[in-house]
Specification:
Layout lengths: L2 H28 L3 H11 L7 H24 L3 H21 L3 H19 L8 H10 L5
Helix pairs in contact: 1-3, 2-3, 3-4, 4-5
Length: 144
């Protein structure tokens, strides 16, 4: 690997790790109060046309999704599916935020979505992940 390839691999690895820590901790810190988070979301959306039970269930899915997706990104396992799932999660969050007309938060969420897109677009630069370790073992004839 030449210096340019190493720079791209390091940049991708650090960006993936940073996003993964951010998203995973969003989920992990909410897990102890999962029902409270879902109930707060339901209150926020009380004036919107969405059914309360759907909003409540979505609150659970958001926290679990953040925890799982973030953890997968931290270790670099199932990288492309995790990045795609994270992008879809951000689109879900963005949709709710726009329904609430919270445009400043929507702008932040677009930034997260762009970050996911950038990592997905540069996934070929991945060199420092569990996926890469597993691929190299399979490629060398070792059993995984």
């Amino acid at each position: 690997m030449n210096t340019s390839e190493l720079d791209k691999a390091l940049a991708h690895g650090f960006a993936r790790l940073g996003l993964g820590v951010n998203i995973a901790l969003h989920g992990f810190v909410r897990l102890p109060n999962l029902s409270g988070f879902a109930a707060d979301m339901q209150k926020q959306f009380a004036e919107i046309f969405l059914p309360g039970p759907l909003v409540y269930a979505t609150g659970y899915c958001i926290v679990i999704g953040e925890t799982v997706i973030g953890t997968l990104l931290v270790v670099g396992f199932w990288l492309r599916p995790a990045l795609a799932a994270g992008s879809l999660l951000m689109i879900l969050l963005l949709s709710g935020t726009c329904l609430l007309q919270n445009w400043s938060v929507a702008g932040l969420q677009l930034g997260y979505l762009a970050f996911y897109a950038g990592l997905l677009a540069t996934a070929a630069c991945d060199r420092f992940s569990l996926d890469r370790v597993l691929r190299s073992r399979v490629g060398s004839g070792r059993r995984v």
